Structures are given as structure tokens and as C-alpha cells.
Amino acid sequence: MPKSSSFITHVEDLLFTPPAKKGREKLKILLCSPEVAPYANVGGLSKAVGDLARALIKLGHDARVFMPKFGNIDEEKYPSTVECEGLKVPTDNKERPELICNVKLHRSPSRLLVYFLENREYYELRANVYGYTDDPIRWALLSRGCLEFFSKCSDWVPDIFHANDWETGHIPNWLRTTYDKDSKLFQSAVTFTIHNLQFHGNFDHRNVPELNSDDGRSPIADFFSDRLLWQDILRRGIMYGDVINTVSKTYSKEILRPEYGEFLDKLLTEVRSKLHGIRNGIDYEELNPATDKLLKVNYDVRSLDRRVINKLALQEEFDLEQDRDIPLMAYEGRIDSQKGVDLLTEIMQPLLKDFKVQFILMGSGDGGLMELIKQLRDDFPDKVGAHLMADFTLPRLIFAGADMMFYPSRFEPCGIVPMEGMRYGAIPIVRATGGLADTVEQFDPAANTGTGFVFQEFDGWSLFAQTVRALEIYRQKKVWQELQKRAMMQDNSWEARAEEYIGLYEKAIHFRSKQLVDEERLEAEGADFSPI
Ligand code: GLC
User: Fold this and answer.
1) pTM for this one?
2) pLDDT above 60 (res 36)
3) Residue 113 neighbours by CB distance under 10 Å
4) Do residues 363 and 393 lie in contact, with contact meaning Cβ atoms separated by under 8 Å?
5) In a designed cystine with 116, which of 18, 104, 343, 454 is the match (CB 3.0 to 4.6 A)?
6) Domains, the chain, ranges and CATH?
């Protein structure tokens, strides 16, 4: 095909939105999140929201994203046009009744439309996404700004708002109270996704003075009152969402128990008929060892032997002995006790002493744990490599070069990194919790099935046992390659998961229409209607 016509096909591809699957209406979906990749990228949340939105577009739906315009979002890289100038976002405070914002629209090459909420004081002057004492105001502004924009300033009105984590938990609350009779938004349904139940707001929900405890039924406090600080926005998201979900099936069940429920297990049990679990996926086009330009050599299941070149390059990158036979084990992610990094450092000492092994740890987070890792690197310089800060390229080199990767989490709503590692043939060693339990199947040598090594109890012995098992199997090159192939051939792409989300959105829309009919009937009968 001549170059010019392939170019035309490409441009047409860009402009063409496929029709939504037969029998399904094309939905207008608005995803709101404090972070969305690649514009603001802190953790798994940004990947999950960005990838889901793009996957929904591929299915033919009109999915868009709404997020703050942080100071470090590069205008040149992500050009935008003004959609709404001088949007007055109500604060419900008497002295300062509104905050003035702009909404800008960016059209990404993947056809995703991104609304940026612009406010100098709360977003533009801040380099980081999280970590400010006035975060409760910043996230109330995001949620209210989002609703106010679609109510007052946009012709495009979402069929469904999809709010993510406590930072946007006000959206379901306001939508079902303040905006309940809004002439534009009254029909919109709302889904609330819990990516992490550990954060309810900017306070420690385990230590709330009686006086400040929030049952979620009062109105959201004004932006500048102290009460806002104590409001349990996560609880409110759960209470007012038409449909709730979390990011794996197992986690959606675990959180009904006090050990995992973070004080919300009773509420979650009460609303369990609207609680679902859809595991996140990963972007199979971007994360592909056969085409990934960041790798030294590309490979796939048929050319797995080439992978070792990436392993040798990784050893060189971290100043470790370059030897294809030494098992290379890695951790990539937040350096945090949620992720079980403490457990990992506990078993590293005996392994480093008794076995010929190498470790690479990368990520940032808890200061104490990072110190421990530095100490291990100093004690075993040719066996331990560490990069204790964020980096874009290194994770890919680790996925493509490490033999095994660890995820010994205390709890894990989903866990995206194991899926990424598996796609590149790095065998996961995981604790059977949350999404990890749903992602990795225990290796069975007799049946030659499974995709990794799984332990149950959160203790060093259990992790140690599975690690030694993995080290033994690693010596059997043929068995190991078969294990790698099975891991690489898992389908963790977003396509199927995005279909599940459509099912969820349809449920929420159905629920809302039914609620409106019921409300009308109740009103006619003179009864009072309040959510849940
Ligand atoms: C949070 C969870 C993690 C999940 C991610 C995306 O970071 O801790 O398990 O994969 O959100 O949903």
C-alpha cells in the first residue's frame, strides 16, 4: 500500500468512533478522578481511570475525563481550548460564596476528551497531586466544579458520572441532594469506585472523636468550615452511589468483613446488592514485549530465549553481577507496608546469605522502609540493586528482565503491577489477597498448570516457602519457560473489563430511572423520599 493511502487510513481511524456494540446504546460517560495518566500519574488509580476511559471509547462509547489542571501539566504537550471561562463554583460559605474556575478541553490522540478544571490557588500553584492540609477543599472543589460545569456550562450532559475514590465521593452525594432536581442532571446516574478503602478523607478514620463522627446524612459542609475536614467522603460515595464497585471480585467480598472493612463493613454489607467487583486491566498495546521500544530486545512467547538479553542489561543497569543463571527477583511499586515491603525485607537477609540470588527494588514511599532497603544494598552491593524514586522507563526494564516479582501485600484492592510483569514473563510471587488472588493461579507441578506462586498467611515463613519453591522450579528451564508462557498468555486486557463496566453503568442508569418513577409516585402520595 502506498504511504499516502496508509496515512489517510490512519487519520480516518483517528476520527472514526466505532458504533457501540449491537443492541447497546452509545453511552455518555464522565469519569472524574484526582489523577489520570498520563497527565497526573501517582499510582494505580491514574492508570486504571485513563485506561478504562480509552477502552470505553474503543467499544464505541463517548467516555470523557474530568480532572484538575495541576501546575506541572505541560500545556505544550497537552494543548487545550477554553470550554468555560469564569465558572462560579459554589462553596456554600457566606463570606466567600464561590470560587472562580475555568474549564479547558484537551483532545488526546487516542480520541479521549479531557476536561481540566483550572484554579490558580488550589491546583495551578501546587506541584503535587496530594499532601496539602487543604486537600478537603481541593477535592470538594473538583467534585462541585465538575457538577456545576455540566449543569451550567456544557451542552454535553453525561448519562453516567463515574466517581473514583474519596476525593470524588461528593459527586454521588451532591448529585442526589443539591442537584437532584437540576434540570440538566436529574436523570444522570452515578457509579462510585473504591480503589482504596483505607482513605476516607484527610483524617484518620480509626481515631475520630465522637463529636466529629459523620453518618453521611447531613449536607456536605461549606468549603471553609472545619466540619468539612471530618466528613467521611468515602462513606458518602458508598451511600449515595447508584452502583458501587471495587477493583476485584475478591476484594469486594473481603471488605464485608471487619478485618478489611476499615469501619465500613457494616454499611457495605447493608448495600451489598449494589456492590460489585471488576478487576482492572492493563493496556495491551502499550505494554507489549514484542514492540516495546524501551527494551534492549523485543520478544514474545515464541522467542522467549531472547529475553535473557534484557536480563543481562538489567543486571548491568543496577551494577549487579551479569550472569544469566542467577535468579533475579524484583519489587516495583509503592514502598509501603500495605504492599508488604516490610515482609519482603524480612526474608531478604536469609535468602541473600544462603542462596545465589539477586534483588532489585524500585519505587518510593515510606522513609523507614527505604532506609532498610538502602542498608541491604550496602550490605550486599553485588546482590541488591535499588532505585528509590519514580521513573518511567525502569519498570519496563524490570518487567522484561526480572525472573520473578514480589507482591506480598497485606491487602490489595486490585494490584496492576503483577499483570504488567506477567505480560512480560516475570513470574509473580503473591499473597492470596484481593485482586492478587484473582490474578495469579498457583503453580501445580503435577498438572503443569498455574501462573505463579501464591501464599496465604501474611508472615515471613509463608512468603519464604513460596520463594524457595520458585527458586527450585527456576532451575528447571523447560518447566519455567512453560510457566512464563502461561503467564504471558493471560488475557488481562481492558476490553473485556470495559464491557463489564458498561453492564454496571446500565444497571446504574436503570436504577436511577426506576428511582425517578418511584419518587414521582411517592411524591404524588405525599411521602418523603430520601436516598438509601
Ligand atoms: C489503588 C489500590 C490498587 C489498585 C489501584 C487501581 O492504588 O491500592 O490495588 O490496583 O488503586 O485501582
Assistant:
1) 0.92
2) yes
3) 18
4) no
5) 104
6) 5-68+133-281+494-524 (3.40.50.2000), 301-489 (3.40.50.2000)
